[in-house]
Design brief:
The chain is mainly α. It has one helix and no strands.
C-alpha cells in the first residue's frame, strides 16, 4: 500500500498546487484590473477630448465647404444661363429656317399630288364612260362583259 499512499500524496499535492496557482492567478487578474482602471479612464477621457477637438476643427471647414459649393453652383448657373439662352435661340432660328426652306418644296409636292389625284380621277371617269359607250360590234372598242348572275 505504500505505492497508493505515494500516488495519493503526489496527486493530492499537485491538486493543492494547481488550486493555489489558480487562486494566485485570480488575485493577479483582480489586481491588474484595479491598477488598469485609471489608465482606461484616462484613455476614455482622451478619446472624448479628441472627438470634441475634431468636431470643433471640422465644423468651420464643413461650413466653408458648403459655402464654396453653393457659390460654385451659383456661378455655374450664372455662367451657363447666357449660353443656354443662345443655344435655345440658335435652335429656334434653325427650326424657322428649315421650315422656311422646306415650305416651297412641301407646297410643290402637295400641288403635284393634287394634280395626280385630279388626273387619276379623270382617267378613271373616262374609262368608265368608254365602258358604257363601247360598241360590241366594233373590234377596236372593248367589249363589255356581262356579269354572271351567280
Amino acid at each position: 500500500m505504500g505505492l497508493s499512499s505515494f500516488l495519493k500524496n503526489l496527486f493530492g499535492s499537485a491538486k493543492e498546487t494547481a488550486n493555489e496557482i489558480v487562486e494566485h492567478a485570480e488575485t493577479i487578474v483582480e489586481e491588474t484590473k484595479t491598477k488598469a482602471e485609471p489608465y482606461i479612464e484616462k484613455a476614455e477621457a482622451f478619446v472624448e477630448e479628441t472627438v470634441t477637438k475634431v468636431k470643433e476643427t471640422a465644423t468651420p471647414i464643413i461650413v466653408k465647404a458648403e459655402a464654396f459649393v453653393e457659390e460654385t453652383v451659383t456661378k455655374a448657373k450664372e455662367t451657363a444661363t447666357p449660353h443656354v439662352e443662345k443655344a435655345e435661340a440658335f435652335v429656334e432660328d434653325a427650326v424657322a429656317k428649315a421650315k422656311e426652306t422646306a415650305t416651297p418644296y412641301i407646297e410643290k409636292a402637295e400641288s403635284i399630288i393634287e394634280d395626280a389625284k385630279a388626273k387619276g380621277s379623270k382617267a378613271i371617269k373616262n374609262l368608265k364612260e368608254k365602258e358604257k359607250t363601247s360598241d360590241p360590234k366594233d373590234p377596236e372598242t372593248p367589249i363589255k362583259k356581262e356579269e354572271d348572275p351567280e
